[in-house]
Task: inverse folding
């Protein structure tokens, strides 16, 4: 099976490189040429409102721009995830007139998913992720996910980034129902058995876009978490079988990345503080999270990526279900089926990406199928990576000898704006190797 996968990968690489040799990248301006913009026109946006596109631009009428600025803005517009193709050029008769050509994508599609915990088919969860984007042309998102099997759940989310366009204010709403197995192995060992939670989540929030790069937000919510095993109530925040947890969260985002789906340049900073409980229902604790990412081009074709992410909990009593875990949402590559838990975690990652096929706009016609489903931006990259992380209770435990580290090599296929597929082989500090297929970018 593994040898067959490697053969398929080799054929795809060969086919893509052959096609790449026949493509030509066209710049809208001559090298080092600068122009002063006197007008901006958007074409091809049959559904998307002009302002959704124009507010991504870092230049305006009257500004002087060059190819570097044009390329960055092209990538920022593509990062919206609303288009199969974006081109920014100049009018052939009036070089000061900027023309933005976009090709709308398909906006509603189900994505099947599955995942297995602890490397056992008995712990299989399968389901569908249904996304409906841009249904009114304002980049709104209806997002629902349903899962069956080991951890059944249903989740719904609505995001409107332009609720009040002039004030740059957006809205988010969420609702979820979950029946999840306990993830805390310490609790399982203490009770000598595992148990489940029934969880209902309700939340809403407002966020303000300060400019193209900065955003602040506030969200409120209520979680109702019911423990199905009476003996396990000692692990709850209230020491009861059910925790009712109101919360308030503040967050700040600074994002200067070029292509958000797979960045080559820029930074991403995320900071959040959440207070849970307010001493109501005998619950009171806090969670902070930071996520710093740095992307830097090297020698014009290599990209060096760095990431530092932390999650910290503190308060009178932090329930086991809200501890910090590595191995689920955040992973150390090389430890795909190994889980780490404690009050806090720290994770760092380094990656060096080399393009095989940087950008190829694929488009073909099929009968009865909309062209928005048969067009995509294709890219292929190889990567070298190193991850290292630790879970801990206090800072005195932060010792290099206690970190778990992994390293390896990967092959990444971009099928934008639809999908990203990663094939990775990694080794952990014990020399044990693993092959992983994932459907999102590492960071």
Result:
């Amino acid at each position: 099976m593994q040898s067959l996968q490697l053969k398929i990968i080799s054929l795809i690489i060969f086919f893509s490189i052959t096609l790449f040799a026949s493509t030509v990248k066209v710049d809208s301006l001559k090298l080092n040429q600068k122009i002063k913009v006197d007008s901006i026109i958007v074409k091809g946006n049959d559904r998307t409102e002009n302002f959704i596109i124009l507010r991504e631009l870092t230049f305006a009428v009257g500004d002087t721009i060059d190819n570097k600025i044009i390329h960055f803005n092209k990538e920022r517009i593509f990062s919206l995830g609303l288009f199969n193709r974006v081109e920014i050029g100049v009018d052939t008769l009036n070089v000061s007139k900027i023309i933005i050509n976009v090709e709308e994508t398909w906006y509603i599609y189900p994505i099947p998913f599955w995942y297995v915990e602890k490397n056992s088919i008995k712990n299989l969860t399968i389901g569908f992720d249904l996304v409906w984007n841009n249904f009114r042309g304002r980049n709104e998102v209806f997002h629902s996910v349903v899962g069956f099997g080991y951890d059944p759940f249903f989740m719904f989310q609505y995001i409107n980034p332009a609720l009040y366009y002039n004030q740059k204010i957006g809205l988010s709403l969420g609702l979820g129902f979950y029946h999840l197995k306990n993830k805390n192995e310490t609790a399982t060992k203490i009770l000598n058995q595992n148990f489940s939670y029934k969880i209902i989540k309700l939340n809403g929030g407002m966020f303000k876009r300060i400019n193209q790069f900065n955003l602040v937000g506030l969200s409120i919510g209520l979680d109702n978490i019911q423990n199905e095993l009476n003996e396990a109530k000692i692990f709850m925040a209230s020491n009861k079988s059910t925790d009712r947890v109101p919360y308030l969260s503040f967050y700040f985002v600074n994002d200067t990345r070029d292509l958000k789906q797979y960045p080559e340049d820029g930074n991403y900073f995320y900071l959040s503080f959440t207070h849970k409980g307010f001493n109501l229902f005998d619950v009171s604790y806090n969670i902070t999270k930071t996520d710093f990412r740095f992307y830097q081009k090297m020698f014009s074709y290599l990209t060096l990526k760095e990431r530092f992410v932390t999650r910290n909990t503190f308060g009178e009593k932090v329930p086991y279900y809200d501890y910090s875990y590595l191995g689920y949402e955040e992973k150390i590559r090389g430890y795909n089926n190994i889980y780490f838990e404690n009050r806090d975690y720290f994770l760092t990652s380094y990656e060096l990406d080399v393009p095989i096929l940087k950008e190829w706009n694929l488009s073909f016609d099929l009968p009865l199928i909309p062209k928005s489903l048969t067009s995509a931006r294709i890219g292929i990259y190889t990567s070298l990576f190193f991850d290292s992380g630790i879970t801990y209770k206090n800072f005195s435990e932060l010792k290099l000898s206690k970190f778990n580290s992994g390293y390896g090599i990967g092959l990444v296929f971009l099928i934008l704006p639809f999908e990203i597929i990663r094939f990775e082989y990694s080794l952990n500090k014990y020399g044990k190797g693993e092959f992983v297929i994932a459907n999102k970018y590492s960071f």
Remarks:
- The longest strand covers residues 344-363.
- The CA atoms of residues 28 and 92 lie 10 Å apart.
